[in-house]
Amino acid sequence: MRDPILTVSGLKKSFDLSQPFVTRLMKGGERRYVHAVDGVDFSIERGTTLSLVGESGCGKSTVAKLLMGLTRPTGGSIRFDGHELAGIRAGQPSVVRRRMQMIFQDPYASLNPRWRVARIIGEPMKSFATHPDPVARRKEVDRLLEFVGLSAADGEKFPHEFSGGQRQRISIARAISTKPEFLVCDEPTSALDVSVQAQILNLMRELQKELGLTYLFISHDLAVVNYISDQIGVMYLGRLVELASAERIFSTPQHPYTRLLLETVPDITMAHRDMDRPAGEVPNPITPPPGCHFNPRCPLVNDRCRAEAPAFRVHGDAQVRCHAVQEGRSDPKKLRKVG
Amino acid sequence: MALLSVENLTVAFPGRRGSVNAIEDVSLSISPGEILGMVGESGAGKSMTGAAIIGLIEPPGRIVKGGILLEGQRIDTLRPEEMRRIRGRRIGAIFQDPLTSLNPVLTVGEQLIETIQTHLRLSKAEARERAIDWLRRVGIPAPEARIDTYPHQYSGGMRQRVVIALALCAEPRLVIADEPTTALDVSVQAQIIALLRKLARETGVAVILVTHDMGVIAETADRVAVMYAGRIVEVGPVAEVLTAPRHPYTRGLMASIPRIGARPDVLPQIEGAMPRPDARPGGCAFAPRCPHRMDICGHTRPDLNGGATLSVACHLTEEVPA
Ligand SMILES: Nc1ncnc2c1ncn2[C@@H]1O[C@H](COP(=O)(O)OP(=O)(O)O)[C@@H](O)[C@H]1O
Ligand SMILES: Nc1ncnc2c1ncn2[C@@H]1O[C@H](COP(=O)(O)OP(=O)(O)O)[C@@H](O)[C@H]1O
Ligand SMILES: [Mg+2]
Ligand SMILES: [Mg+2]
């Protein structure tokens, strides 16, 4: 990669779900952890978009929170433009933090309902002191409102006076108010209707071009990810199983889970495919299967897959975590259907 | 004869400035074994239409115009206890969150057996056999063992399968499924869609499938009704509506859906937003956003007109019959 702005390596986060120590002493019971993020590696080229896709619970939002310093990693490193972030205490604002902002899925929950929109958008400029003067700050707020397709007069209103799509525009204005270089977008259009989603996705692409932003984009919708991404990482139970360019993921998916995901996207071409096969569901993340996490659902499974976790290896111009791919026993042509 | 026909149905809620119509002049019909998709953005009136059909409009909302006929019988004027008998026995329901349909303190078997015995004349042992049979049909592995377990012991996808069994076990003629796959992951959603389609084929039950997801409609439905601002703007065979939409709203909606395989620089988008029920313009509710707006659209509301299979509510298509 020529100029990565962000490089994540061996990133891990586990949550301790055990009963308190005393309860465990009296009632027995073991320590239980959920390995929400279990060794994730990727880098993002400046000015591009890397998307993380995967089913709910695979660890996407936890990666987002780790990058934003909202929760501390259990292990691994996060390097942003040469600065190591993994050691910084959670929540601590720093010069780097101003350069990274986040947009959330729920534009209702992420805006303070009692503040006027101008105050919401101006808040980061105040706390990071990029615009300490209130008059200059208000001028900048008005400019931002128009930039994201609202009007300066909207600054006087409260969040409840806006539709879902307009609220997401407000969140975007707030996120770009400190002139960040990097935006983490956690399912920013998942709560919106498709016609509104198109407006927001177009706005995000426009902002990227105009401001040179880098995005980490999170979604469970492969078609959305296809539109917005340069690189796509597919996650399964805390691990990346495949990472490649958007073109590659869709034209020649390699990991059996990537293929399953692509096959199960509802298709507006009305193929009426027969999908009621036992393709299974994501297992409980507290007790993931040994070896490759995907092995109970995998049509290519063998004894090695059940015992030994595959490494994340370069294969062609993708990175894939799969014994079958690495051993050359995953010819997509021979494999008519996964599942 | 249509299994269900809804005619000019209007549901109103009292508002601060007079009564507000949640849905207006909704007319549709469905034949036995048919899957009718209802699609549209949130607030368009899909759930309200479904709620009116099963007699579960939340007061103070009420039907102020039109009617609902099930197998020729008027059901919108029935007393609540009569309607309760129809629900379950002749009309089943599946909702987005499986937990709203399941009782957490009863086993899956107890719930199925109770529903079966309420509506069908079967002994306890026969009802239990029937319940196991339904669990097998909806794809629950080892149903003989799992029948005596509780809903929380099932995964999300398996729970929705149980809800489907519960909706179908009294052998209704019609099922209203309101966003049945929205809470599920894509790989599970695909399995539930296929299951619904298979069961409709096998049992001849008709399904009204409410969803905001055009992909789900495409994979499941035979016909689709597109709703906008409380009205049906286009209805017809899925293949026709999705590949050659006539109404400018349907066209805009279809174009704005990102697709796998295409990577345009800009997604076609419809400007603006759907008006709230108390702020709908006179004339066609889509007119302010419509790229083909004509003078008449500003003051005259277009009726749903068309041929035997496809109908569109648009002044443009009125002039150029398809
Ligand atoms: N604060 C937390 N405490 C305990 N478990 C958590 C916490 N946050 C997330 N998890 C668990 O970590 C896993 C990954 O969650 P998340 O990152 O939210 O997934 P995704 O965003 O892909 O749906 C899930 O099993 C989730 O239940
Ligand atoms: N209890 C209620 N009181 C007043 N208005 C309601 C109520 N429930 C729904 N509505 C209105 O009815 C319209 C249709 O809602 P709904 O059928 O739930 O939409 P959809 O299912 O298409 O998202 C919306 O404008 C909504 O605001
Ligand atoms: Mg998440
Ligand atoms: Mg609804």
UniProtKB/TrEMBL annotation, chain A:
It comes from the Bacteria. It is found in: Cell inner membrane. Pfam families: ABC_tran, oligo_HPY. PROSITE patterns: ABC_TRANSPORTER_1, ABC_TRANSPORTER_2. GO terms for molecular function: ATP binding; ATP hydrolysis activity. Keywords: ATP-binding, Nucleotide-binding, Transport. Residues 17-262 form the ABC transporter domain. One of its GO terms (cellular component) is plasma membrane. It is a peripheral membrane protein. GO terms for biological process: peptide transport; transmembrane transport. The keyword Nucleotide-binding applies. Its main location: membrane. Gene3D superfamilies: P-loop containing nucleotide triphosphate hydrolases (3.40.50.300). PANTHER family: D,D-DIPEPTIDE TRANSPORT ATP-BINDING PROTEIN DDPF-RELATED (PTHR43776:SF7), TRANSPORT ATP-BINDING PROTEIN (PTHR43776). NCBIfam families: oligo_HPY (TIGR01727). Belongs to the ABC transporter superfamily. This is Peptide/nickel transport system ATP-binding protein. It comes from Roseovarius azorensis.
Automatic annotation (TrEMBL), chain B:
It is found in: Cell inner membrane. Keywords: ATP-binding, Cell membrane, Membrane, Nucleotide-binding, Transport. It holds the Pfam family ABC_tran. It is a peripheral membrane protein. Gene3D superfamilies: P-loop containing nucleotide triphosphate hydrolases. GO terms for molecular function: ATP binding; ATP hydrolysis activity. Its main location: membrane. GO terms for biological process: peptide transport; transmembrane transport. Residues 4-254 form the ABC transporter domain. Transmembrane segments: none annotated. GO terms for cellular component: plasma membrane. InterPro entries: AAA+_ATPase, ABC_Ni/Peptide_Import, ABC_transporter-like_ATP-bd, ABC_transporter-like_CS, Oligopep_ABC_C, P-loop_NTPase. Belongs to the ABC transporter superfamily. PANTHER family: DIPEPTIDE TRANSPORT ATP-BINDING PROTEIN DPPD, OLIGOPEPTIDE TRANSPORT ATP-BINDING PROTEIN APPD. This is Peptide/nickel transport system ATP-binding protein. It comes from Roseovarius azorensis.
